[in-house]
Amino acid sequence: DSHKHKDKYKDKEHKHKDHKKDKEREKSKYSNRYDVTVIHAYGRHIGADSSSSDLFGDMVQITNALVLALCTAVLVACVGMLVYILPSLCFFIPFRWEEERYTDGVKWKFLEHKGPVFAPPYEPLPSNVKFYYDGKYMKLSPGAEEVATFFAKMLDHEYTTKDVFRKNFFKDWRKEMTSEEKSKLTDLNKCDFSEMSEYFKAQSEARKAMTKEEKLKIKMENERILQEYGFCVMDNHKERIANFRIEPPGLFRGRGDHPKMGMLKRRIRPEDIIINCSKDSKHPKPPPGTKWKEVRHDNKVTWLVSWTENIQGSIKYIMLNPSSRIKGEKDWQKYEMARRLKKCVDRIRAQYREDWKSKEMRIRQRAVALYFIDKLALRAGNEKEEGETADTVGCCSLRVEHLTLHQEMDGQEYVVEFDFLGKDSIRYYNKVPVEKRVFKNLQLFMEDKEPEDDLFDRLNTSILNKHLQELMDGLTAKVFRTYNASITLQQQLNELTTSEDNVPAKILSYNRANRAVAILCNHQRAPPKTFEKSMQNLQTKIDAKKEQLADAKRELKSAKADAKVRRDEKSKKAVESKKKAVQRIEEQLMKLEVQATDREENKQIALGTSKLNYLDPRISVAWCKKLGVPIEKIYNKTQREKFAWAIDMAEKDYEF
DNA sequence: TCCAATACTTAGGACTACAGCA
DNA sequence: TGCTGTAGTCCTAAGTATTGGA
């Protein structure tokens, strides 16, 4: 098995002629045999028993049994035999690794890393870049100047014109000023940052215009930092760290109408940092002359570094990359949980439908909310502190004002019109015909309430999740999103694809299936700024290709006529080559048209989020294997790394 | 039971390198 | 070879869920 992997990785290396970086990464991964073999080990097991709900547990038992049996056999057999069996014993080493499935929330036994990379220190502006107040030049103190540059860098953004942004910024900026500056600078509108802004624009231009050598030098330096700080050792695995760079200071820009937009996000110093690593590891050193806030050894959490951010007072963490064992296993468990829901979802649906009739209001509310979460893939909707964040809601926190009930609409009965801002202030707008009973319940919930009152006043996420926990062990509201997303992908793929299609058509179908999920989960994006233009360009290309095809057909026709008269080998060959040309152009045209359709349909829909977080990757892997689509067409390199476990374990007959 | 703290997943947008084209 | 559009990557905000203590 290990050899098979070796070959696979070698192949990859040949294909990726590019960049030392990639090769280095592959190599470092490969040099650690456990990274490769362990993933394979659980892959094998899944294949053997995919129906088991507690695979890790089973694996441990089976492995234990196997090892025990082997040991007994070895004892009974003569000593000479031992040497003979030894290689096969080695085969179990990776399994034994997996045996270390920790209990009681223990996440690791050994953790060593180099700590975070801090943001580069502030570089004062050159003296010719000036700041003006009320038309007069004014030299700022370094502290005030730094914060001023944050604002100057954002000048082109619309939000620097917003009142809230300006007010928050000015308030925090003043805190960084000397008392003299504070007394002079009293009106943001009189501040002129334009020279600073120009300076930064010029810098970014200069960066773009750098020579190849200069760019390479920067790249090399980044690579060096990555090699030094970008990896850690967790239980004998060398693992990639996700965000080993500390967030640089700047102005906070929340999403949507955020009351804290424009506030100063302060610089993080070593004194703010908590390091988490194992006692027996080489502890990371703070920069010379500084100290960490704390070094702790908590192996019940997965983070390596944490600090408290000053805007919301929340904790930020440095954690491992999605390709790591600890994240991969969790991801796998997430999909296994969703598959368990698949087995009992009918029962749960019957239950909540029954609950629509309950005598108790709280149960009716719970049942209707769950229906929305299931049918519409809404998020749970935790309570939020008012005034601290943008006003967004999920299912449990819906307010009366977010729904409009229509007895009849567009020829359909009992239509509920949803209109609210969800996570990241993305608008959810949907008109949904519901069952009469749900409709009547909603009327009841909305009776005698103000628009700003909670729709489900007897419900919150913790009540809902407690109930779900009783219906199925480990079930929470978000599992429904995962389940419905994955099952939709599987159904859509079955419906849309046929083995007769060519690869581009299959990929179009895959994207359509992916799109169905993205629509269900309301994953939107702002249309790319260049969308219209690029669409036009594509259309021009299509038109040109059509003309080219017409020409080629004409040429074919005349070649055929020519061949009919001449009846020699040469003209026959000419016909053949013209035929091929027509075929080739037809294929090219079709490819372009597919591309256009795909792009148009994708204008406002983001596929990435569902692909990365909601779709069981084994469905996609199996689909690729079954239909002969190379996995590289569906997953890019990073995605393949994240889903290595799935690529390894799913066969073509995998079913979610 | 409630609330705050904590840990972890999910999310869209900005930036950038590079593929593909003329 | 130079240009441009976009895929891939980075960044960090904003959710969900659990826990532990009052």
| Overall geometry | globular
Radius of gyration based on Cα positions: 31 Å
* Spatial sequence of strands, sheet with the most strands: 10-9-11-12
> What is the helix fraction of residues, given as a range?
40-55%
Can you give a write-up of this model?
It is a single chain. This protein is an alpha+beta fold. The protein folds into four domains: 113-118 and 214-324, Beta Complex (DNA Topoisomerase I, domain 2), CATH 2.170.11.10; 131-212, Yeast DNA topoisomerase - domain 1 (Arc Repressor Mutant, subunit A), CATH 1.10.10.41; 327-474, Alpha-Beta Complex (Topoisomerase I, Chain A, domain 3), CATH 3.90.15.10; 487-649, Orthogonal Bundle (Topoisomerase I, Chain A, domain 4), CATH 1.10.132. Helices cover 54% and strands 9% of the residues. It has helices at residues 2-15, 20-31, 33-48, 55-76, 79-90, 93-99, 142-153, 163-175, 179-184, 194-208, 212-229, 325-355, 361-376, 436-446, 461-471, 477-496, 503-520, 531-566, 569-601, 608-613, 617-627, 637-642, 644-649; strands at 111-112, 131-133, 136-138, 191-192, 231-234, 237-240, 250-251, 264-265, 274-276, 294-296, 305-308, 315-318, 403-409, 412-421, 427-433. A four-stranded mixed sheet has the order 10-9-11-12, with no helix packed on it. Strand 14 and strand 15 form a beta hairpin. Helix 17 (503-520) runs parallel beside helix 19 (569-601). It is globular, with a radius of gyration of 31 Å. Mean pLDDT is 83; it is low at 1-99. The structure holds a DNA duplex (22 and 22 nucleotides). The active site is at 614 (o-(3'-phospho-dna)-tyrosine intermediate).
